[in-house]
Specification:
Length: 586
């Protein structure tokens, strides 16, 4: 049995070396340890000191969701997906991608209503799959938030320059002493990040107001863009390519092109998950969160479909510019419209940056509450009721990266960590419905989740790597039949262990299973460097967990159990005193 003194594992070098020697035992104890909803809402939440104020309503969440999703992505992915994959059927691709996002949003909503805390996916996985799985996904999420926010802030300066007709070389300068890729200094990008950091540190409510103003302006810009496209466009472009030798019709590349296009444009929907991190600051979680999360996804889907239709009417699909489809579509038609596109894109990028910075700070705050990173990050300021420490640290870190590093704006589109978390949350909502510790056995549910994920992976590999021919449709059809059979057997054989008290994903386990399949399929559409980067950051997160987090978490567990024992001793002492002296009873 491992002994533990009152001193921390990090108090002295000798204590730390002794703790490292106990790493295997501590990993076995802490890595699979599962928290409970009650602990997350009470004891764990109390570690932040002050509470976050519940000031947000459903319309604030809708605004934050729209602001988080409608960034630079739609202005880049639409042209590439239409030109290379879907053609005019890019409208259908956006509708399919929106359905996928809505299914994942349902899974987030069930957890957020049941447990309205600021941790988002980290907290959901911690009460389902344990501390290590939550830490691994949380670390990847925060890493991608910081990296993509730095990239987006530098991209914002490019769009601002285009809107004002000023080259970015006017405010970026070169430091020859630094290596290439790190020598182009962008003070404006860093200043934007620091200003937004001050806003989110000051007040969540004021941050929501700023986001609502910017999002409203952005939606007005999108409406202007749609109307101009419908007015100046030609309906014949939906079916006739510019080059008669290219495939024609509304579906020039068939069903496979539509789904490949959906896989690409789905990344334009990433951002709604940040809304779930605001659950702790929502006035009425049961009512506001479902409307806010699902409503924002539905509105954005409609906007994206209309934008895609507008672009398809302006130009035949084979003449659309891959890099800047909307700007190129209006070039030569109206200089004013081209400038408006630059201004509107700047608003969109700014709102997505604001929402992402709100989300990353709340993720870090709740990770700090769990003691796997220093508890300093968990502190909520008593006056502003915001996680000031986490917001300031990540804001300064993001500004430093944006200052030196020449990150491509497309980095925020390659969000393998975010897709991985969507996949994990979809698994978690099924596991939590069908498994109750001490009441039901987990193996039937775990077996189903593993088999279904394996079948989805095989389908994805066949779809992407098998050459066209007769065997391919047969293999794909076989995978679909096997997946449906596995799902139906599980649905008939394994009863649900718990029912949601307030709001739950409908048609369980069908909708979350479809979400699992779609996320696996989308993960398979990403490029090799994305997986290399994901593997690198995952390995780094595991190293941090083994060298620091598991020991800090173990210390907190022992200190907490000792404190609990002391409370029980005091209560037993009081009870015995009352039994000895009945006059003390009230």
């Amino acid at each position: 049995m491992e002994t533990h003194s009152s001193s921390s594992s990090f108090s002295t070098l000798q204590s730390y070396l002794k703790a490292l020697a106990q790493t295997p035992r501590r990993l076995a104890r802490r890595a699979p340890s599962v928290s409970s909803s009650y602990e997350e809402l009470s004891r764990v939440k109390a570690r932040s000191g002050s509470d976050m104020q519940r000031t947000l309503r459903w319309f604030d969440l809708v605004g934050l969701g729209i602001g988080g999703m409608v960034g630079a992505g739609v202005f880049v992915t639409t042209g590439r997906a239409s030109r290379l994959y879907a053609g005019p059927a890019i409208v259908v691709s956006y509708a399919i991608a929106g359905l996928c996002a809505l299914l994942s949003a349902f899974c987030y909503t069930e957890f957020a209503v049941h447990m309205p805390v600021a941790g988002g996916a980290f907290s959901y996985l911690r009460i389902t799959f344990g501390e290590f799985a939550a830490f691994l996904t949380g670390a990847n999420l925060i890493t991608e938030y910081v990296m993509s926010n730095a990239a987006v802030s530098r991209g914002l300066t490019s769009y601002m320059g285009a809107a004002m007709g000023i080259s970015t070389t006017k405010w970026r300068f070169i430091l020859p002493l630094l290596p290439n890729g790190f020598n182009e200094i962008d003070l404006v990008a860093s200043a934007i990040v620091l200003i937004l950091t001050l806003v989110i540190c000051y007040s969540t409510r004021e941050s929501s107001v700023v986001n609502m103003i910017l999002t409203t302006l952005h939606i007005l810009f999108i409406a202007f863009l749609i109307l101009m496209g419908l007015w100046k466009g030609d309906w014949n472009n939906f079916t006739h390519p510019g080059n008669p030798q290219h495939p024609s019709g509304f579906f020039p590349y068939g069903a496979s092109g539509v789904f490949n296009g959906a896989a690409m444009v789905y990344l334009s929907y990433i951002g709604y998950d940040a809304v779930s991190t605001m659950a702790e600051e929502v006035r009425d979680p049961v009512k506001d969160i479902p409307i806010g999360v699902s409503g924002s996804v539905i509105i954005v889907t409609i906007l994206y479909c209309l934008m895609a239709a507008s672009m398809s009417m302006l130009l035949p699909y084979d003449m659309i510019d891959v890099e800047a489809p909307f700007s190129a579509a209006f070039s030569g038609r109206s200089e004013l419209v081209a400038r408006v596109i630059g201004v509107g894109a700047s608003f969109g990028i700014l709102t997505s940056l604001l929402v992402a910075m709100l989300g990353q700070a709340r993720y870090m705050c709740v990770i700090g509450r769990s003691n796997v990173v220093p508890a300093w990050f968990a502190r909520v300021h008593p006056k502003t009721s915001t996680p000031v420490n986490a917001s300031a640290f990540l804001g300064i870190f993001t500004a430093a990266i944006a200052l030196f590093t020449d990150l491509n704006i497309l980095l925020n589109l390659v969000s393998i960590g975010t897709l991985f978390v969507f996949y994990m949350v979809s698994n978690a909502v099924i596991y939590r419905r069908y498994v109750m510790v001490g009441t039901t056995k987990p193996w039937p549910t775990l077996s189903f989740l593993c088999l279904f994920s394996l079948t989805s992976t095989i389908f994805t590999l066949v779809w992407h790597f098998t050459p066209p021919g007769k065997p391919k449709p047969f293999l794909l059809g076989a995978c679909v039949v096997i997946a449906i059979s596995i799902l139906q057997v599980f649905h008939c054989m394994v009863p649900q262990a718990r029912k949601p008290a307030f709001w739950g994903v409908p048609f369980m386990p069908w909708l979350p299973s479809i979400s699992i399949f779609l996320n696996v399929f989308l993960l398979g559409s990403l490029d090799g460097p994305s997986y290399v980067r994901f593997g690198f950051f995952s390995a780094l997160a595991v190293l941090v967990y083994v060298l620091y987090s598991v020991h800090a978490s173990f210390d907190a567990e022992i200190d907490g159990s000792m404190g609990q024992k002391n409370v029980e001793i005091v209560e037993e002492s009081k009870q015995s005193e009352e039994e000895e002296d009945p006059s003390q009873k009230v």
